[in-house]
Amino acid sequence: MKKRKILLLIVLILTVGVTWIIEPLSFNPFSRVEIPEAKSEIDFNCEEPHLAVNSELESKANEIINEHMASNNFLGVTVGLYIENCGTYLSGAGFTDKGDQKRTNSDMLGRIASITKPMTAIAIMQLYEKGMLDLDKPIQTYIKEFPKKVKGDITIRHLLKHTSGISHYSSKWDALSFTHYPTLVNALDAFKDKELDFVPGTQYMYSSYGYTVLGAIIEKVSQMGYGEYMRKNIWNKAGMSNTSLEEDKQKYNNKSRLYLKVKSTYIKSPKTDLSIIYSAGGVQSTVKDLLKFGEAVLHNKLIESTTLEMMINATDEMAPAIGDDPYGFGWAVYDDPKYGRIIQHGGTQPGASSFFSIYIDHKIVTVVLSNSFGSRQNAFSLSRDITYLALEE
Asked: I want to staple 343 with a disulfide (CB 3.0 to 4.6 A). Which of 75, 151, 283, 331 is the partner?
């Protein structure tokens, strides 16, 4: 009898666990539920006749999004397009909450993952413009908590360009953190004593932890918490009223739940703590706010135009020719033979796959945010396809 009760308890626990993960049984791989199609809003009044922006853009963009949804590329996705002297297109499709089958809209608040890095880089360059830091001095000049390394001195320039030698995640599991750190200076404790992977400045290796160090430097130099600094000097200046750090103590409206894409199935993700990488990937936002960020970059609202040119100069980059675009300060930089200079950044983490791009020469900004890990390549493809609608001859 006792064994039977134990067995029943195990079955009950497994049933509850599977139900929670699949969320709910009525929306599992064996049951078809109609996925909400793209619902959009558009505000165009174009002054640029050379752009192929017409009355069909909205319907074509919605069709592209719906094709992605029909291919099961996303559970929920929001898309934003800004065109200088023209206006904006916003759209959302799919579910922001799978269990309640709550449809996504363009106001969905979600993790932006590594799109945070260009924001952090701009914050560093603001302090550089004010003469508060030197890009080429050892980082211990500003943050004594980070120990000197046998392989050589790390500079802020190394951190910005991912050439510091500080390691990235050792695996996908290493990226899952459940520990909360009150400040980014405290977060350094998780990795600061590890030896460098190479001599600083000799190789390229993408490192979110390197951007954690940059966030800690911002805290030290500005004498402000990272979130406070970003709110005052980046988000407020750009008019980003729905952008913040993801912190448990706060309540959010229209916040998406977190999901993981496992082959063709979307399962609930455990809630990870982003405080170890706030300055590398701990920001949440909306497509509307990220379009405002892109517009602020284009209009030099955050840094001088000459400073932006420094950031997107990748002539001395060390990124591999295959697999990575040249990397400047916080931006992947690409010179397209047809569309000119593009600066961009993608991101992925539990509950997010994202892509952000600015077509500098055409003054176009495109944003894609999805609420699931495992859809990053699809986010890039969707971003590119939506942008091309505005660039076609």
From this structure: 331
Which among 387, 142, 124, 198 is positioned nearest to 379, based on CA atoms? 387
d(CA 283, CA 116): 6
Helix (H, G, I), strand (E, B) or coil at 158: helix
Query: Which residues fall within 8 angstroms of residue 360, CB to CB, at 6 or more apart?
Result: 298, 312, 340, 341, 342, 343
pTM of the model: 0.91
Rounded-to-10 torsion of CA 302, 305, 308, 310 = -140
- CB neighbourhood size of 393 (10 A): 6
Say which amino acid occupies 328.
G
Look at residue 364 and give its three-state secondary structure.
Answer: strand
* 36-393 carries CATH number 3.40.710.10: yes
Residue ranges of the chain with pLDDT lower than 70? 1-33, 48-55, 171-175, 248-250, 317, 319-324, 393
**Which contiguous run of DSSP H or E holds residue 111?**
strand 110-111
Distance CA 15, CA 10 (A): 8
Distance CA 108, CA 175 (A): 24
Q: 107: which 2 tokens?
A: 């106001």
How far is the CA of 265 from the CAs of 35, 58, 260, in angstroms? Answer: 14, 29, 8
Token representation of residue 368: 């894609």
For 193-255, the three-class secondary structure string (H helix, E strand, C coil) is CCCCCCCCCCCCCCCHHHHHHHHHHHHHHHCCCHHHHHHHHHHHHHCCCCCEECCCCCCCCCE
